[in-house]
Amino acid sequence: QVQLVESGGGLVQAGGSLTLSCAASGRTFSNYIMGWFRQAPGKEREFVAAISWSGAITYYTDSVKGRFTISRDNAKNTVYLRMNSLKPEDTAVYYCAADRRVTITTRSKEYDYWGQGTQVTVSS
Asked: Closest Cα to residue 80, out of 49, 104, 107, 105?
């Protein structure tokens, strides 16, 4: 089992920045691909970004490329999502997730463990 706890969400004006953190406990954190997803009211959960075990490989959905950066610190069992140039359409509950597979996937059903989510609200 892996337990995931997100933090860092909040209210920010458009154009602002936030950094989300996801602290993991349980099994060896470095064995998992880590992903961030988000879900806006009335919408399905969507993939945002993912990072490989070592951190060498990252992948982003098109709408956040150039604005968001995913990173991880395996010594601290933590994955981060730095969000810059935030837009109102980025408003959502953000979830981190862990995947035991060896390749990055954008499909939420492939991820094995989930955090409880943290709210990000971007005002215009």
From this structure: 49
Q: Structure tokens of 94?
A: 């953000």
What are the tens digits of pLDDT across the range 28-83? 888 899 999 999 999 999 999 999 999 999 999 999 999 999 999 999 999 999 99
Tell me if 50 sits within 8 A of 70, measured CB to CB.
Answer: yes
Alpha helices per DSSP H over the chain: none
Rg (CA), the chain: 13
CB 71 within 8 A of CB 57: no
Neighbours of 75 (CB within 10 A): 8
Structure tokens at 119: 């709210």
With a CB cutoff of 8 Å and minimum separation 6, the contacts of 74 are: 29, 30, 55
- The angle formed by the CA atoms of residues 73, 94 and 4, to the nearest 5 degrees, is 50
Residue whose entry in the numeric block shows the structure tokens 């909040």: 10
